[in-house]
Design brief:
single chain; 229 residues; alpha/beta; Rossmann fold; five-stranded parallel sheet; three-stranded parallel sheet; 8 strands; elongated
Length: 229
Amino acid sequence: MLQATNGLEALLQVKRHHPEAVVIDVHMPRLGGLDALPRIRKFDPATHIVVVTGRAQEVGEEALARGAHAVLGKPIVLPDLQRALGLEAPAASPPPAAAPAPAPAVTGARVLIVDDDEGVRTIFEEFLAAKGYRTRSVPDGAAALRAVVTDAADVMLLDIDMPGLSGVDALVALRAVAPELIVIMVSGTVSQELARRALDNGAFDYVVKPVDLPRLAEVIETALLLKGR
């Protein structure tokens, strides 16, 4: 059995493992169940989707229109869930099976790394190149602006704390010259104010150094997935 804590994680699980059925809540952080529904359908039209919600009467018709097979109100009653999933009765637990191998990350996407620390740039480039991404890097915000104008990128990792043009200031200009660019902010400090400003100005997400590289790869894959790559 697979689990996800929000709609974006649910999309990644469906993309990687193609489960036969998905039970999804309407209200989740990052991406709600109603918005996730058509995307799950796009990945695998055969997936059996059951939506659960505390407002079944309000959102039930919309959920069915977006591809749900059934809508259940909370609190969930186990027999109702079993019927919605096409299960007559609880089956005996089968022997544990080997977990399916994850699907490869989105390969070939172009990632531009912007950081004044050469060591950080090298770590990101080597890690993402090994994941199949095409990477290049520049040391500051002004160079980042020139780079996206001359050679477009799909994703940018943009350091916030840089001399000269800061990452947040560069982000505003980047949104103007490259509106389709996915920007993930990287910072050496935890600051809710900086995170809010970055997200308000169009950043997709915000990560803090030292960066959890597997988590970063998941953020990039999710961003590309939502963009339709």
